[in-house]
Structures are given as C-alpha cells and as structure tokens.
Write a structure and sequence with these properties.
Elements: H1 9-29, H2 36-47
Helix pairs in contact: 1-2
C-alpha cells in the first residue's frame, strides 16, 4: 500500500508502531488488557527489515 500511495515505507512503519504503542499505553492506563491483534501487528512490523 505504501508503494501505491507513494509513501515512505520506513516512516509509515515507524508511525504505525508509534500508534500501536500509544494504544497499548492507553489500554494499560485504563486497566484493560493489551489487544492481541495490535500486539501481533507490532511484532510483525518489528521483525520486518526496513
């Protein structure tokens, strides 16, 4: 999708990881468990080479 939209792939990846982190922090702050789907997305992005 980054190619089709002419986006910088490493920047889009970093932005997405930042959003996932923010969502996780909000969940923890509100006493909710971490979202398994978001954790899996973060793992896949983290393990991918830039």
């Amino acid at each position: 999708m980054t190619d089709v939209l002419a986006l910088d792939r490493p920047r889009a990846r970093a932005w997405t990881l930042g959003r996932l982190l923010q969502n996780a922090l909000w969940d923890l702050e509100d006493g909710r468990p971490l979202d398994d789907d978001q954790l899996e997305i973060a793992r896949r992005l983290r393990d991918r080479t830039a």
